[in-house]
């Protein structure tokens, strides 16, 4: 942490908050506070300057128009690039994940992304909607990913990005891999409040940003039941 | 009416009656389905000769349709799809069942508005609001607004009654030359921060809104809500007494009065009829069982959950969430709703997706207890009021437990 408290920024909730994206901010703040880590959260709108010194940055999903607008503003602002270069952790969801790459498609046109992840996205033939499940890259040491996806994009990974998971149900990037990660940046098509079903990913972001090797365990009885139910539901599809 | 339409109408009514007699449902879909199989133009045939008003939007359309039908009833008999069956099968059933009526007031699923305008040739279309609702299946909000706009642009003779407080609705209605604007408030703002015309941010202050990059802005309302009443276009204020709870229903009443006025009904004539509406297809219904007074509130999406919290009394509250086909399979909207208003009351949770709700409430710091059935919930609360807030199929499940209360 760069200061006394953990600082979490939610990027452009006015543009990218299609479905429960606020949940990731709430869950991170909740899990940090439960470990006695002081937290400050910031919701940075698209007409405000992006702070460069926060510890975790969250970016959510959205429709084509707001996605293109968000990419433009982040490129012009430059603050997020500085934050990432200084080692901030990032969780990028769906439209936010796509715009972290080199390019993406919105409203039929190719748009320049932030180039912070070595990925590029185009359009699939069909929309991917439904339960998503995958085995997460073993180097991250996390239990299986469970989520709900709803996107029309297909994402191709370059050499500098590793898949977040191997798909066992659903589509993700291309039916084989799902999401991407590099350094402390995580991107995923598990949309909306992805951390609700994946508290271990929330804790990974907290460990990265605090430098702690391990965090005190929390009572995750309800989250465990939810995970179990959704992992089984994805198998049944 | 062509012979085939007469045959189809009779078949439709018979099927609906059979479905009701067999206890399989309201009969409000199957009848229309059969009728349309026999005569694909049956909805158009049944509509001709009636003065039709359509009511569409993400939220409030069932209630507003019910209130509007009550208000228009001042002038004569009104056919209406009062069971919330809001697709063409439901419209067909409703019109077939009522026989010939001078008026029809139909609730229309927002996806079907263009199609139903084509078939029913309405005099009036009321547009309530557009917000996120089942995004795993439904069209995104701006795409829906575009569909409405296109549908209305080709029907310049229709009188539109539209919500001035919702930028998406205003933009969709702007294609129409004849718009009466009402202001019923917009509790949910998260889907209209970006102008659908220019892509620039929309600014808001003191109930007003405007685009920062193009001329789109809030039009002046002809009808508006003030305190417990409605101000009409002449500036007269009318007290609105309803048996339905919440400020949101005063807004729905304002919309109903605005639509009825287009047919020539004066507010003073309509208001006593609005006051007699008690519940709509189980919504707001109160049932007494085992000393508990159970009240049913339907909440299908984030905007309507906020409205339900506004209506619910400070009493034990059961929340039930499913994610079956009619609900949408995605529960992530739970994080768009702030459940904090429930912190100081006993909260029970149930439904197919109770675990999603459990995790949500934990993060929201709302204590709760998980129950496996409606009966268990009843036993878990003391005698007195039990508020039940449920999404669509969960609501229908509980309504079935209560003998399909209307």
Automatic annotation (TrEMBL), chain A:
<feature type="active site">
    <location>
        <position position="191"/>
    </location>
</feature>
<dbReference type="InterPro" id="IPR043702">
    <property type="entry name" value="Lipid_II_synth_GatD"/>
</dbReference>
<comment type="pathway">
    <text>Cell wall biogenesis; peptidoglycan biosynthesis.</text>
</comment>
<comment type="subunit">
    <text>Forms a heterodimer with MurT.</text>
</comment>
<dbReference type="Pfam" id="PF07685">
    <property type="entry name" value="GATase_3"/>
</dbReference>
<dbReference type="InterPro" id="IPR011698">
    <property type="entry name" value="GATase_3"/>
</dbReference>
<keyword id="KW-0961">Cell wall biogenesis/degradation</keyword>
<feature type="active site" description="Nucleophile">
    <location>
        <position position="94"/>
    </location>
</feature>
<comment type="function">
    <text>The lipid II isoglutaminyl synthase complex catalyzes the formation of alpha-D-isoglutamine in the cell wall lipid II stem peptide. The GatD subunit catalyzes the hydrolysis of glutamine to glutamate and ammonia. The resulting ammonia molecule is channeled to the active site of MurT.</text>
</comment>
<dbReference type="GO" id="GO:0008360">
    <property type="term" value="P:regulation of cell shape"/>
</dbReference>
<dbReference type="GO" id="GO:0009236">
    <property type="term" value="P:cobalamin biosynthetic process"/>
</dbReference>
<dbReference type="GO" id="GO:0071555">
    <property type="term" value="P:cell wall organization"/>
</dbReference>
<dbReference type="InterPro" id="IPR029062">
    <property type="entry name" value="Class_I_gatase-like"/>
</dbReference>
<feature type="binding site">
    <location>
        <position position="127"/>
    </location>
    <ligand>
        <name>substrate</name>
    </ligand>
</feature>
<dbReference type="GO" id="GO:0004359">
    <property type="term" value="F:glutaminase activity"/>
</dbReference>
<keyword id="KW-0315">Glutamine amidotransferase</keyword>
<protein>
    <recommendedName>
        <fullName>Lipid II isoglutaminyl synthase (glutamine-hydrolyzing) subunit GatD</fullName>
        <ecNumber>6.3.5.13</ecNumber>
        <ecNumber>3.5.1.2</ecNumber>
    </recommendedName>
</protein>
<comment type="similarity">
    <text>Belongs to the CobB/CobQ family. GatD subfamily.</text>
</comment>
<dbReference type="GO" id="GO:0140282">
    <property type="term" value="F:carbon-nitrogen ligase activity on lipid II"/>
</dbReference>
<dbReference type="GO" id="GO:0009252">
    <property type="term" value="P:peptidoglycan biosynthetic process"/>
</dbReference>
<keyword id="KW-0378">Hydrolase</keyword>
<keyword id="KW-0133">Cell shape</keyword>
From TrEMBL, chain B:
<dbReference type="GO" id="GO:0071555">
    <property type="term" value="P:cell wall organization"/>
</dbReference>
<feature type="domain" description="Mur ligase central">
    <location>
        <begin position="55"/>
        <end position="260"/>
    </location>
</feature>
<dbReference type="GO" id="GO:0046872">
    <property type="term" value="F:metal ion binding"/>
</dbReference>
<keyword id="KW-0067">ATP-binding</keyword>
<comment type="pathway">
    <text>Cell wall biogenesis; peptidoglycan biosynthesis.</text>
</comment>
<dbReference type="InterPro" id="IPR036565">
    <property type="entry name" value="Mur-like_cat_sf"/>
</dbReference>
<dbReference type="GO" id="GO:0016881">
    <property type="term" value="F:acid-amino acid ligase activity"/>
</dbReference>
<comment type="function">
    <text>The lipid II isoglutaminyl synthase complex catalyzes the formation of alpha-D-isoglutamine in the cell wall lipid II stem peptide. The MurT subunit catalyzes the ATP-dependent amidation of D-glutamate residue of lipid II, converting it to an isoglutamine residue.</text>
</comment>
<keyword id="KW-0547">Nucleotide-binding</keyword>
<keyword id="KW-0436">Ligase</keyword>
<dbReference type="Pfam" id="PF08245">
    <property type="entry name" value="Mur_ligase_M"/>
</dbReference>
<dbReference type="Pfam" id="PF08353">
    <property type="entry name" value="MurT_C"/>
</dbReference>
<dbReference type="InterPro" id="IPR013221">
    <property type="entry name" value="Mur_ligase_cen"/>
</dbReference>
<dbReference type="GO" id="GO:0008360">
    <property type="term" value="P:regulation of cell shape"/>
</dbReference>
<dbReference type="InterPro" id="IPR043703">
    <property type="entry name" value="Lipid_II_synth_MurT"/>
</dbReference>
<dbReference type="GO" id="GO:0140282">
    <property type="term" value="F:carbon-nitrogen ligase activity on lipid II"/>
</dbReference>
<keyword id="KW-0479">Metal-binding</keyword>
<dbReference type="InterPro" id="IPR013564">
    <property type="entry name" value="MurT_C"/>
</dbReference>
<dbReference type="GO" id="GO:0009252">
    <property type="term" value="P:peptidoglycan biosynthetic process"/>
</dbReference>
<comment type="subunit">
    <text>Forms a heterodimer with GatD.</text>
</comment>
<keyword id="KW-0961">Cell wall biogenesis/degradation</keyword>
<comment type="similarity">
    <text>Belongs to the MurCDEF family. MurT subfamily.</text>
</comment>
